[in-house]
Specification:
Shape: globular
Radius of gyration: 25 Å
Largest sheet: 6 strands, antiparallel
Number of strands: 31
Helix content: 10-25%
Strand order of the largest sheet: 21-22-23-30-25-28
CATH architecture of the largest domain: Alpha-Beta Complex
CATH class of the largest domain: Alpha Beta
Structural class: alpha/beta
Length: 478
């Protein structure tokens, strides 16, 4: 038996602003430990006994592709990334994954996991996965229902029936239920018939493709056409954009799972109960719930000093944060924003993000520190007609061969060795050496060494936007 992990890594995590941004969302952040949420998800099957686990397949978009590949490399995992031209929800994402696997000539059980969940008890999770695999191998459509710890209005629910034939814990899937009000949620939990909807699934690739073709042929056809026109680019599979966008958007739940009871010839829906310290980390209060706390119920990260404070979360990213007399608060500090909220109101963070977007502010989309496939840069100062950046280039990496119409640049090497292309000259610079790139000159920065290259770049000119770039050659296909 074999399992194909499929990680769905879309979404922007707006309720976890200012740590999570549109261009660098929560799944790429180490919110609940030293690993990022994506890395923790990819590690979730390590040590699983009695089955073969294939290389991870991630479904994401162009914006995150290099960060995902780098994060998998950091934990020693090989994987491939399917690049969606635009978000079309989870049903097309799973269809693409199933098609990619089918093209390799195998038919494994797909384990579909969102990239932004926390699971504390890996042993319990893996035990449930083995149960799900056995059921999925028989053609069942398996989802995992979280045993509810409390009445919760922020989650959808699954109504489960009795234990199905041949299962240890798997129960028949009766219905998916939308997020209830408080009274209904309490009734669900008291009944013992309802589980939280985790969004985790196990289905054989062939079973899913047959089901999506039956229930939603428009998705099946659009994904097939997108894969037929796809381009294989090393670690990435780039889909045909026109074909993919011609298909509708739908979730796995709506497109297939909810329709199974009325179509038994397609397959049986089964829900496996899961009690493993699960959280979808949808907002700051949910993260507080799953993090380790001090004796007063506080969660702290970074340089934080608290006095007479309880049941609060304080995350300091770049400086000392001191709190006195805090109670049930969330404080998140980054280099360009500070967010303070009552723990009961963290769902409303998305309203702040909406206002930032409406006002066209960059804090909604990006951090001051921006990751690129070659490394990262941090805009440390700016003013009228100038900008100062700290740039770090990974060993062996290089920026595109480029030119700017509206700005000149000065480069000062702080650490490492830089290979500089400046017009028709190519030369090396070492620590404390510098060069000047005139406006309109073709240029490139590369790191030929074995340690990170760090430079300070001073830009000057009439326009300093990131879109003032003409690329002539680029290793990363941008």
């Amino acid at each position: 038996m074999s399992i194909q992990p499929v990680i769905l890594s879309g979404g922007s995590g707006t309720r976890l602003w200012p740590a999570s941004r549109e261009q660098y969302p929560k799944q790429l952040l180490p919110l609940a430990g030293s690993d990022t949420l994506l890395q923790a998800t990819a590690r979730r099957l390590e040590g699983l006994v009695g089955t073969v686990v294939a290389k991870t397949l991630v479904v994401s978009n162009e914006e995150y592709r290099f960060s995902i590949a780098e994060q998998l490399r950091q934990i020693g995992q090989e994987g491939r990334v399917l690049l969606e031209p635009a978000g079309r929800n989870t049903a097309p994402a799973l269809t693409l994954a199933a098609l990619a696997v089918r093209d390799s000539g195998v038919d494994p059980v797909l384990l579909v996991m969102p990239a932004d969940h926390v699971i504390a008890d890996l042993a319990a999770f893996q035990s449930a996965i083995l149960e799900g695999e056995r059921l999925a191998e028989t053609g069942a459509f398996v989802t995992f229902g979280i045993v509810p710890a409390r009445p919760e209005t922020g989650y959808g629910y699954i109504r489960a029936g009795g234990v199905v034939a041949g299962a240890q814990t798997g129960r028949s899937l009766q219905a998916f239920v939308e997020k209830p009000d408080a009274a209904t949620a309490a009734r669900y939990v008291d009944s013992g018939e309802y589980l939280w909807n985790s969004g985790i699934f196990m289905i054989k690739a062939s079973s899913w493709l047959a089901a999506i073709e039956h229930f939603n042929p428009a998705i099946a056809q659009a994904c097939l056409a997108a894969m037929e026109g796809a381009k294989d680019d090393g670690d990435f599979i780039r889909l045909d954009k026109t074909a993919f966008l011609a298909g509708p958007s739908d979730s796995i739940d709506y497109a297939v799972m909810e329709r199974l009871p009325a179509a038994p010839q397609i397959g049986e829906g089964v829900v496996v109960p899961l009690s493993a310290g699960w959280s979808d980390v949808g907002a700051w209060d949910a993260l507080w719930e799953v993090c380790d706390k001090d004796a007063n119920g506080n969660v702290v990260r970074g340089e934080v000093m608290l006095e007479s404070s309880e049941n609060s979360m304080v995350l300091a990213g770049t400086r000392l944060v001191a709190g006195i007399g805090l109670k049930d608060l969330v404080i998140v500090e980054t280099v360009d924003a500070v967010m303070v909220a009552h723990k009961d109101r963290t769902q409303d963070v998305k309203k702040i993000v909406a206002r930032l977007k409406a006002e066209g502010r960059s804090e909604a989309a990006s951090h001051r520190k921006v990751f690129r496939p070659w490394g990262w840069y941090d805009s440390i100062d700016s003013g009228e007609r100038f900008q100062v950046k700290r740039i770090v280039v990974n060993p062996g990496a290089k920026l595109s061969l480029q030119m700017h119409h509206h700005r000149a640049e000065h480069w000062i090497v702080v650490k490492g060795t830089a290979e500089v292309t400046n017009g028709d000259k190519v030369f090396l610079l070492t620590e404390n050496q510098s060069t000047y790139i005139p406006l309109g000159h073709t240029h490139r920065l590369a790191n030929p060494g074995k340690v990170p290259l760090e430079i300070i770049e001073v830009q000057s000119g009439s326009y300093l936007g990131e879109d003032d770039i003409v690329r002539f050659e680029d290793t990363y296909g941008r």
